[in-house]
Specification:
The complex is a heterodimer of chains A (296) and B (286). Chain A is mainly alpha-helical and 296 residues long. Chain A has one domain (2-282): ABC transporter involved in vitamin B12 uptake, BtuC (Orthogonal Bundle), CATH 1.10.3470. Chain A is built from 11 helices and 2 strands. A two-stranded antiparallel sheet of chain A has the order 1-2. Chain B is mainly α. Chain B has one domain (2-285): ABC transporter involved in vitamin B12 uptake, BtuC (Orthogonal Bundle), CATH 1.10.3470. Helix content of chain B is 77%, strand content 0%. Chain B has helices at 2-27, 35-52, 57-79, 84-104, 106-109, 124-143, 145-155, 157-162, 167-193, 203-216, 221-238, 242-259, 272-285. In chain B, helix 1 crosses helix 10, helix 2 runs antiparallel to helix 3 and helix 2 runs parallel beside helix 4. Chain B is globular. The chains are: A mainly alpha (296), B mainly alpha (286). Chains A and B meet through helix 3, helix 4, helix 9 and helix 11 of A and helix 3, helix 4, helix 10 and helix 12 of B.
Chain lengths: 296, 286
């Protein structure tokens, strides 16, 4: 029973990890909290839904699921590029203060959430069921297939991201620009392209996360507000650290599943908030132990 | 006429909340996504105390403000030592947590059904008088030593620190004043609408207040007041569909950000001396 809950928790944690890493990528490179990420997830959840309805006429089951994921991921990536262009490009070029990035990202987030409300109205939709909700048995252990697939696909998305980040030229460019923008620029990297690439990667992760959120809950315009889980995971893991975000998110998923068993789904946000406060008091730099300072 | 008064009353209550955001965001550069949660605290605590326990209204309001203060301490203490991003992330979580508490204590707060049957005690005059007091507090805070320290902190935290400003205490004090002020707005709110529900206090409200402050001008109190009237008062009269209204705000804000990043009023205030200067300049030109 406990192991079963553990697997559920890790599966939920892997979705939170998608959110938290997408958030941490932008934090690393532009040094601000990107609140528009939630709005982006709302939109991509609907993009995935529309794709699944259209393509559902031709394919069913697992292929349909994969196509839906890819559509949402690409949609999320493109949307993130647009967000970068509209909301942050000019700010970056004029070296604006962090306050403006904040306002811009909040506004963009609300705008996306509202566009969904306007076009889809506040009705609830739900994804077609991709796979039969049966279980796989490993001896005494039974694991639900959707949980397993969620874990599988989120983990592969994260692994792909890590490979791109640590094994390719563009990944090197992203990491060095995160470390020091002006030096990277002097070394001949085009900051506009690097930032755009980062936004694309973050948008892809957001898109995949949006589909999983849409499957786990129903589709509604405020779905993206689950980004608060990503925030909590980043705070626990240490703001701006990708490995910290991963660990924090998986921990959060496990804790949440156990909390739902203990105190019920309603109270769990409260308990998680308290855990986050305690964490901030005891170890403000988070699990990863790296603290991002304001630059002089 | 009644409609006009009720719209003005609502705008006044919103304005008190916006003043709190102005202190936190406009003056100090902190971003609080939980400001609406303080509104909820003020509304629920005072209404429950008054309705269920029969406390006199002023006492209930006072307790509500104290609870708001305590909640502000709870959120503020761990976060003021850290980067300013933390306060936005933590207040976001705080807002969610408060809504969860309200939804789960249905036997006291009515849960998702909301709390109804609160008598209407707030009048336009009361709101107007409170508003004047709050504006006076904010003006004197802005012109005091602390206000100038806040501005220094907003522009460059590191520099402010090295000039000997106790940034942690300053952030905490500003945040607490705003928390109490917003809780007070909550008291006015519940005793005017006579009905509250948890759904009315989401982060979009907090974000909307921030946008209002921003449209007016990051550091201009006049701008904040002006923008509140334009952005909350006018749409009431013009009867926009509310979804489109918010989308239009967002587009306006993005335009302002890209083309006039300091907001409508920028750093200017409309005060007597400013008007005199303007007048003199005009006279010289003529």
């Amino acid at each position: 029973m406990t192991i079963q809950l553990l697997i559920n928790g890790i599966s939920l944690g892997s979705v939170y990890a998608l959110i938290a890493v997408g958030f941490a990528l932008i934090f690393n490179i532009l040094k601000f909290s990107n609140f528009s990420h939630g709005g982006l997830m709302s939109v991509t959840a609907y993009i995935g839904y529309v794709a699944s309805i259209f393509i559902g006429h031709y394919v069913k089951g697992l292929p349909l699921f994969v196509v839906t994921l890819i559509a949402a991921a690409l949609g999320g990536g493109l949307l993130a590029l647009i967000v970068e262009r509209v909301a942050f490009r000019r700010l970056r070029n004029s070296n604006s203060s962090v306050i403006y990035y904040f306002i811009s990202s909040i506004t963009m987030g609300i705008l996306m959430e509202n566009s969904v409300t306007i076009f889809a109205s506040s009705n609830f939709y739900s994804y077609p069921s991709f796979f039969p909700t049966s279980v796989i048995r490993f001896g005494a252990l039974s694991v639900a297939i959707p949980d397993l697939l969620t874990l599988l696909f989120s983990a592969s998305a994260l692994v792909i991201l890590l490979v791109v980040l640590f094994r390719t030229r563009i990944g090197l460019a992203i990491r060095s620009t995160s470390f020091d923008t002006s030096t990277a620029k002097l070394m001949g990297m085009d900051p506009n392209r690097v930032v755009a690439a980062t936004f694309f990667a973050s948008g892809v992760l957001g898109g995949v996360a949006g589909v999983f959120l849409g499957i786990n809950y129903t589709l509604y315009p405020q779905l993206g507000q689950l980004i608060v889980k990503g925030f909590v995971a980043s705070v626990i893991g240490g703001l701006g650290s990708i490995s910290g975000a991963l660990i924090g998110a998986v921990l959060l998923g496990i804790v949440e599943i156990f909390l739902i068993g203990l105190v019920g789904a309603g109270w769990s946000p409260v308990v998680i908030f308290v855990i986050m406060l305690v964490f901030l008091l005891l170890r403000p730099r988070g699990i990863s132990g790296v603290i991002v300072q304001e630059k002089a | 006429m009644e409609y006009l008064v009720s719209t003005l009353t609502f705008t006044g209550i919103t304005l008190i909340g916006v003043l709190g955001v102005y202190m936190v965001t406009g003056l100090t550069g902190l971003f609080s996504f939980g400001q609406a949660a303080f509104l909820a605290i003020g509304a629920y605590v005072s209404a429950v105390l008054y309705k269920n326990l029969g406390l006199p209204l002023p006492l209930a309001a006072l307790v509500a403000m104290l609870v708001g203060l305590a909640a502000g301490l709870l959120v503020g203490l761990p976060t003021v030592r850290l980067r300013r991003d933390y306060i936005s992330l933590v207040t976001f979580g705080f807002g969610e947590a408060i809504i969860a508490v309200l939804n789960n204590t249905a036997n006291i707060t009515g849960g998702a059904m909301g709390l109804s049957g609160v008598p209407q005690k707030t009048s336009f005059l009361l709101v107007f008088a409170s508003l004047l007091v709050c504006v006076a507090i904010v003006i004197s805070y802005k012109n005091s030593k602390y206000g100038r320290q806040c501005l220094a902190l907003r522009n460059d935290e590191l520099a402010a620190k090295s000039m000997g400003i106790n940034v942690e205490r300053l952030k905490l004090v500003t945040f607490l004043i705003a928390s109490v002020m917003t809780s007070f707005a909550g008291v006015l709110y519940v005793f005017y609408t006579t009905y509250v529900e948890p759904g009315a206090f989401g982060w979009v409200i907090s974000a909307e207040w921030m946008i209002i402050v921003f449209v007016g001008g990051v550091n201009s109190l006049t701008g904040a007041v002006f923008a509140t009237f334009i952005l909350t008062g006018l749409p009431e009269f013009l009867r926009f569909a509310s979804e489109w209204r918010i989308a239009i705000y967002c587009v306006i804000v993005l335009l302002i950000l890209n083309f006039r990043p300091s907001g409508i009023f920028g750093e200017h205030e409309i005060s007597l001396s400013f008007l005199q200067k303007l007048f003199r300049k005009g006279a010289r030109a003529a």
